[in-house]
Design goal:
The chain contains 5 helices and 5 strands. With 146 residues, the protein is an alpha/beta fold. It has a 5-stranded parallel beta sheet, with helices on both faces. Helix 3 crosses helix 5.
């Protein structure tokens, strides 16, 4: 029998994130499992070569992470009551970090949203969810916006 004791809920704090959290919470309740909510802040290392001092970029990323950690605390409190859940914030490429974190932590399933980008937006920005689905050895449940 398949069990889902450790559920990774990848969020970006957009409007769909509470809906993604609802799916993760439902799985945790059904399987008496725990949730780890993960937010990946952009590393911005690709901008170091531009005439921007590295210290400025590092400081900016630090502020993003600090703000995201506060937002994560509130998000976990509001969306995962009555279950064991924790929030984690890291930096890097979102798809890579989600897959690596899931493998390192030994999660049973990844739950994440899609944004349904189309056309030029999809070409320019790609799809984090698509990359995770294609590269993860762990099952992925994707939740589409309404």
């Amino acid at each position: 029998m398949v069990t889902m004791k450790k559920i990774l809920c990848a969020v970006d704090f957009s409007d769909i994130s509470p809906k993604v959290a609802e799916y993760a919470k439902t799985l945790a309740q059904a399987f008496d499992g725990d949730v780890v909510a993960l937010y990946v802040a952009p590393a911005l290392t690709q901008y170091v070569g531009f005439h921007i001092p590295a210290g400025s970029i590092e400081s900016f990323v630090g502020e993003i992470v600090s703000g995201a950690e506060k937002t994560m605390d509130v998000f976990v409190e509001e969306n995962f009551e009555n279950i064991t859940a924790k929030g984690v914030v890291c930096t890097g490429d979102a798809a890579e970090e989600i897959v690596n974190f899931a493998q390192k932590e030994g999660v049973d399933i990844i739950v994440m949203g899609t944004h349904g980008r189309k056309g030029i937006d999809r070409l320019l920005f790609g799809s984090v969810a698509e990359k995770v689905v294609k590269t993860s050895k762990i099952p992925v449940l994707t939740v589409r916006p309404d």
